[in-house]
Specification:
With 394 residues, the protein is an all-beta fold. The protein folds into two domains: 1-225, AttH-like fold; 227-394. The protein is built from one helix and 25 strands. The strands form two sheets. Strands 3, 4, 15, 16, 17, 18, 19, 20, 21, 22, 23, 24 and 25 form a 13-stranded antiparallel beta sheet that branches. A ten-stranded antiparallel β-barrel has the order 1-2-6-7-8-9-10-11-13-14. A hairpin with a 6-residue loop joins strand 9 and strand 10 (147-152). The protein is globular and about 60 Å long.
């Protein structure tokens, strides 16, 4: 593939759904994997998020963000929004989080805007440019040939040993993973979501003066509904295959007001089944799963790996299946990045969400279909990340 495929014309629009106070949330999000030469079972990972929210105030991992102004637009459709840029970097041994935590205003334009250099077609090219001294831009090049992104780590992270600069280029991989997936749903009262996703891309990543090749995932999201707990995760395989799972749920953990894991209330949830998708490069087909089970367990036996706060990192056991294919896997988290959100709401109350991201190391995987059984030995490598949230933001 030479270009990303699909209707990317709304990539730089943030008005696809009318805003709702405290509920509307927009973000661009990318996660990148590169092999870890010191531990082939793991990957080094970079996550970056550009985000804005319709709120008077929200505390993000201890930083109070009070936007003070709202989204504004000009006669050409260009936008300026208040927001934040956040990122973490896992180097295979240590998690730097936050790598970036910056409040800023951001300009968003497509290639039909007069500020864009050259003639545009309105089919995907454009950019998001935080108005900062350093380059934190994100953009799609003409012809939808590639996505670029840049960032400079915060001085506090560099003082702890983090790299200073990151430059990435995302290019098409193959078929389904590099074809745009679009989902839009309105529940009622204007609440719903609007999501664009590129599930698998090739990646060139420059970290300071060192260059890597790997893979990436990219999405643009608008959500305007209370943020309920969920499990979500995804894997990239050496042959280009892609697997993800998703399980939103209700749980007593919705009452949690901090980021402490392993509370008893987290272990009951309903519903207990979700969905998933597998773009199978080896078979040349896509499997959709309406049945998915997720188990998050504390490690036993040997001394467990721990996060930066000293908490034991979990084991994830995932199972997805349909009438033709079933996949089961066990992966252990080898690190944890966590983001906390506290938003004042009605009657002086404060709502809370803890959002966790876990770089994964695959312990075992079994893929069974009508042509036989495949395991990790059938793939050169498998890289992935899992999410787990608790609380409810409203």
């Amino acid at each position: 593939m030479k270009n990303f495929v699909g209707d990317l014309s709304s990539l730089w629009r943030l008005d696809t759904m009318p805003a709702i106070p405290r509920l509307s949330w927009w973000w661009y999000w990318a996660i990148m994997y590169v092999p870890d030469p010191d531990n082939p079972a793991r990957s080094r990972q970079l996550m970056i998020l550009w985000s804005t929210k319709e709120t008077s105030a929200i505390r993000v991992s201890g930083h109070w963000w009070r936007p003070g102004s709202r989204m504004s637009s000009d006669e050409h459709g260009g936008l300026v929004v208040p927001g934040m840029v956040c990122a973490w970097w896992y180097d295979g041994k240590r998690m730097f989080e936050p790598l970036v935590l910056k409040e800023c205003r951001m300009a968003v334009v497509d290639d039909n805007h007069p500020l864009w250099p050259g003639e545009g077609t309105g089919t995907g090219a454009g950019a998001l440019v935080p108005l900062l001294d350093e380059d934190f831009s994100l953009g799609m090049r003409p012809g939808n040939e590639s996505i670029w992104l840049c960032l400079t780590s915060d001085a506090e992270a560099r003082a702890e040993g983090a790299p200073m600069s990151f430059e990435a280029e995302l290019t098409p991989w193959w078929g389904p993973p590099s074809t745009l997936t679009y989902k839009n749903n309105v529940y009622g009262f204007g609440m719903g979501y609007d999501i664009l996703r590129l599930q698998g891309t090739k990646l060139k990543l420059k970290v300071d003066d060192e260059e890597f090749e790997g893979t990436a995932y990219f999405q643009k999201v608008q959500v305007q509904a209370p943020s309920f707990p969920w499990y979500w995760g995804m894997l990239h395989f050496a042959d280009g295959s892609y697997l993800d799972w998703f399980m939103p749920h209700s749980t007593p953990g919705m009452t949690s007001m901090d980021d402490s894991p392993w509370r008893r209330r987290h272990f009951f949830r309903t519903p207990s089944i979700g969905t998933g998708i597998f773009h199978d490069a080896m078979r040349g087909r896509t499997e959709k799963f309406a049945r998915c089970e997720v188990e998050v367990a504390e490690p036993d036996g040997e001394e467990p790996l721990r996060d930066n706060q000293g908490n034991a990192l979990p084991i994830f056991r995932i199972r997805v299946w349909n009438g033709r294919t079933q996949i089961s896997l066990e992966a252990r988290a080898c690190s944890r990045a966590r983001w906390t959100f506290d938003q004042p709401t009605r009657a002086g109350m404060v709502s809370h969400l803890t959002y966790n991201e876990y770089p994964l190391e695959i312990e075992r995987i079994a893929i069974l279909d009508e042509q036989g059984l495949r395991t990790a030995d059938d793939y050169g490598w498998i890289h992935g990340n899992a999410e787990h949230t608790w609380g409810i933001l409203h």
